[in-house]
Amino acid sequence: MRVNKVLSLYFWAACLFVIGIGAAEAQCPPLPYQLSNGQLADATKVMADLNALFNCIGTNLQVSGPGGGVVSIENPNATTNYNFNLPATAGAAGALLASGGGGANAATWTSVGVSGHALPFLDGANTWSGTQTFGSVVGTVSTQTGTSYSLAVSDCGTTILFTGAAAITVTTLGSLPAGCSIALEQGGSGQITIVAGAGATQHSSHNYTKSFGQYAILGLFVDTNAGGSAANVIITGDGA
């Protein structure tokens, strides 16, 4: 057969190779035989070219984008760690494919939307679009031994235990976000005094600014923060 009658074979093979890559470029070694249009096709050469192409697709697909860098996609039997190793079996509908290494660390499917399955990357910020049910939630307690402490955004949702024997000054922060809640416990004999930092305004219905005594807990709650730098801090709890 003539080459112009078998070019469609190359075309469809190439489509399988580059589909879904978009602007990226698939990289394979040159084909062993270069055939030109109108030339009588030798079946051995045609099959050698096709086998070379499919071997490239089936073993190590390398994709490079316009920004540089190469991503290697390896078959399920690979024993070497690559950027992305295909799993040995197909995943269920709606499952996520997590990239992994080669051999024993091959990529796996992760089920989503079903109770009892863990979702990846839950250590980052997430936005929940529906009602979520959680188990027991245990707050974080940090300990401070000094005589002064300036609150940080990372303190929101936590309890700070002050264990010093001398008086302690806690300074609020103007950038504490609305909804931030912090508990302050006087764990030692040193009384806690709360002072407003730059941009912060604090209020107490009983005009409390200090802890009552050892084991007293004061609550700080930010109800508003205009512009993100003017926290309005409400003081509650066992104060004096």
Explain this structure:
By secondary structure, the protein is α/β, with parallel strands linked by helices. The protein has two domains: 108 residues, no CATH class; 98 residues, Sandwich (Jelly Rolls). The chain contains two helices and 15 strands. A six-stranded mixed sheet has the order 7-9-11-14-15-13, with no helix packed on it. Strands 1-2-3-4 form a four-stranded mixed sheet. The protein has a three-stranded parallel sheet with strand order 8-10-12, with no helix packed on it. Helix 1 runs parallel beside helix 2. The radius of gyration is 32 Å and the shape is rod-shaped. It starts with a helix and ends with a strand. The relative contact order is 0.08. The N terminus is likely disordered.
Write the layout of secondary structure elements.
Layout: H1 3-18, E1 25-27, H2 43-59, E2 60-64, E3 70-74, E4 84-85, E5 96-98, E6 108-110, E7 140-144, E8 148-150, E9 158-162, E10 168-171, E11 181-186, E12 192-195, E13 201-203, E14 217-225, E15 231-237
Parallel strand pairs: 3-4, 7-9, 8-10, 9-11, 10-12, 13-15
Antiparallel strand pairs: 1-2, 2-3, 5-6, 11-14, 14-15
Helix pairs in contact: 1-2
Keywords for this entry:
2 domains; alpha/beta; 4-stranded mixed β-sheet
- β content, as a range? 25-35%
Helix count? 2
H-E string: HEHEEEEEEEEEEEEEE
Helix content: 10-25%
Coarse structural class:
alpha/beta
Radius of gyration: 32 Å
Unreliable spans? 3-7, 15-26
Number of domains: 2
End-to-end separation in angstroms reads 98 Å
What average pLDDT do the residues reach?
A: 78
Biggest sheet details: 6 strands, mixed
Side-by-side strand order of the widest sheet: 7-9-11-14-15-13
Number of strands: 15
Shape: rod-shaped
